[in-house]
User: Which sequence fits this backbone?
């Protein structure tokens, strides 16, 4: 407290004219942060805010390919709750919800946070060059064009003579009958394919955060006779709490809205809605219905619910991780 | 002592073994990819006949002479990724500076809102973004008559780049804020006392000091621009549109009426991957430093 006070006094005594600011210079310094933020505000308004309002409105209409340009979707007279009723009475609604929960939680726990943390911990504790090479290898999944990446997973999962896993690993071990693994275990591959991309994000953030921890802490714990596990549990993990919050939150939201990989890998199959997740449903309804009729209004309704779920999740995370305490006020404001 | 040393080695061997096991699918997958691009057919990792014909797209267009050559598409992709990266770095570092260094109403709200922005699924915002881009197209010069990138409207490289910038911003702002937070403010304070404006401080003092951050963000933004698929695919039309970027160009192989030549798709995919890998080789160090913040997010 007293230290802060002293600091403030120091700051104000350093500036030559703290109290003689004119109205305009006060106005200027009040507006300055917003000037710095203005490019972001413009882009966000154009491509997030306006589209969000429009999606929200569209979700109350039955806009589709057949009445596009005819339906006056901006008129309240055309708004109904039909789309939402349709979603909640959908026979597959529980299944899609269940799929989404399973997909997000499994991929997040095992890969985007779990595997990312394991790889980061291992690669920061072994030979620097080797650790580096492994991190690059994991990053390759993210770098590969998604179409080719999914092609590779299909090749791994392929049926007996063609599939890599069946021919070289499962076959010699005598496991399974050489079926197409995507048909027998679709979920394993959905989670693996997404997880290997997702893990690289957390891996990079965690490993650079771990390397940023002052070495003194590690040495001190070694001197005190802590085991590797104790060092990780009591020093490393608490020190990277902030990146853990960021990655968990960011990746939950990423997973909730990601669908490209599943679209290309199983397209929601192999059974009826077996691997169909929420965002994929939104995409299917909005862009590729079975009858070639794209129901933009209905798809928007699915998306709106997803946005709401995402926002609620984000707020819960921010509360759990005590976001407000982590964000401190900036020290210098004005001079 | 000897036993202890042995145990240490045994432990580290176990660790390496675990790492190798976890990474196995990646090795297998990329090995398969490389073998496939040089084969007529494969069975697992076994080639049933070696060939170079999958790489013929490098010297002649696989869809006839009317289509753009792969090199033109590559150049286009490069342009899109560069434009997008430049905008992302500038816009997010400006915002991150304000969020890290200034006190203003709505700071906390803005910071959490940035994270929440990421919750908006790009899929379904695509329909309304189409309307917005069409509207920008109508603005003179900015909309369409821009040299090189064509403008910022519908069916232009600038327009596609701008939409992708929007989806990159939450990530960019958070990462850059971490780097700004880490710089001590003494340097900045002395510049301010000497009469520099906040803008000068940002550009001349802080930006040169967060070069690792800029490098890291640039690399990530560049990669997502280079691999962009859904957004360029949606917001470009016609034959010119089909050759905007490499990922969309890949799609040409699958939408033709003839059977898809998967081996050639793999070759084009590998071709798209190679520049990124080379680029990576030279920027390794920057990648390690993507996260600049310490245990806490404030400063």
Assistant:
């Amino acid at each position: 407290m007293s230290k802060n006070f002293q600091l403030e006094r120091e700051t104000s005594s350093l500036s030559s004219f703290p109290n003689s600011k004119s109205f305009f210079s006060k106005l200027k310094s009040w507006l300055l942060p917003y000037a710095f933020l203005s490019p972001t505000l413009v882009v966000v308004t154009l491509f997030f805010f306006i589209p969000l309002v429009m999606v929200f409105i569209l979700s109350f209409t039955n806009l589709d390919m057949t009445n596009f340009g005819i339906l006056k979707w901006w008129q309240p007279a055309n708004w109904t709750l039909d789309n939402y009723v349709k979603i909640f009475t959908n026979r597959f609604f529980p299944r899609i919800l269940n799929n989404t929960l399973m997909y997000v939680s499994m991929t997040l726990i095992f890969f985007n946070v779990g595997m990312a943390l394991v790889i980061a911990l291992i690669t920061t504790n072994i030979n620097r060059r080797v650790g580096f090479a492994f991190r690059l290898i994991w990053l390759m999944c993210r770098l590969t064009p998604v179409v080719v990446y999914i092609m590779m997973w299909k090749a791994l999962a392929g049926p007996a003579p063609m599939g890599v896993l069946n021919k070289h690993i499962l076959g010699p071990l005598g496991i399974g009958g050489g079926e197409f693994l995507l048909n027998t275990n679709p979920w394993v591959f959905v989670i693996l394919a997404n997880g290997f991309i997702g893990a690289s994000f957390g891996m990079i953030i965690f490993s650079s955060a771990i390397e940023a921890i002052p070495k003194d802490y590690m040495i001190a714990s070694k001197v005190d006779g802590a085991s590797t596990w104790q060092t990780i549990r009591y020093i490393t993990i608490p020190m990277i709490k902030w990146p853990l919050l960021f990655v968990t939150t960011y990746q939950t939201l990423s997973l909730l809205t990601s669908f490209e990989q599943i679209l290309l890998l199983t397209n929601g199959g192999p059974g009826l809605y077996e691997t169909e997740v929420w965002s994929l449903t939104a995409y299917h309804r909005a862009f590729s219905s079975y009858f070639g009729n794209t129901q933009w209004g209905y798809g928007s309704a699915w998306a709106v619910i997803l946005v709401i779920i995402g926002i609620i999740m984000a707020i819960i995370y921010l509360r759990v991780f005590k976001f407000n305490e982590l964000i401190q006020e900036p020290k210098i404001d004005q001079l | 002592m000897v036993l202890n040393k042995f145990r240490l080695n045994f432990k580290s061997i176990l660790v390496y073994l675990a790492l190798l096991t976890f990474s196995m699918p990646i090795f297998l997958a990329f090995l398969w990819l490389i073998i496939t691009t040089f084969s007529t057919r494969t069975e697992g990792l076994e080639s049933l006949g070696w060939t170079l014909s999958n790489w013929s797209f490098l010297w002649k267009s696989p869809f006839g002479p009317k289509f753009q050559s792969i090199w033109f598409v590559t150049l286009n992709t490069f342009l899109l990724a560069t434009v997008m990266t430049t905008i992302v770095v500038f816009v997010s570092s400006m915002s991150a500076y304000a969020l890290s260094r200034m006190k203003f109403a709505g700071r906390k709200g803005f910071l959490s809102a940035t994270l929440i922005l990421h919750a908006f699924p790009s899929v379904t915002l695509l329909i309304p973004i189409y309307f917005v881009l069409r509207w920008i197209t109508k603005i003179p010069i900015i909309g369409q008559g821009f040299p090189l990138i064509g403008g910022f409207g519908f069916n232009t490289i600038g327009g596609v780049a701008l939409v992708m910038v929007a989806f990159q911003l939450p990530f960019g702002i958070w990462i850059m804020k971490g780097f700004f937070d880490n710089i001590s403010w003494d340097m900045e304070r002395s510049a301010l006392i000497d009469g520099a404006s906040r803008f000068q401080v940002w550009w001349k003092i802080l930006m040169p000091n967060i070069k690792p951050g800029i490098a890291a963000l640039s690399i990530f933004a560049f990669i997502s621009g280079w691999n962009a698929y859904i957004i360029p695919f949606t917001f470009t039309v016609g034959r010119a549109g089909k050759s905007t970027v490499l990922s969309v160009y890949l799609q040409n192989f699958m939408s033709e009426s003839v059977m898809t030549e998967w081996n050639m798709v793999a070759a084009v995919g590998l071709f798209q991957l190679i520049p990124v890998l080379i680029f990576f080789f030279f920027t390794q160090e920057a990648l390690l430093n993507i996260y600049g913040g310490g245990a806490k997010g404030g400063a």
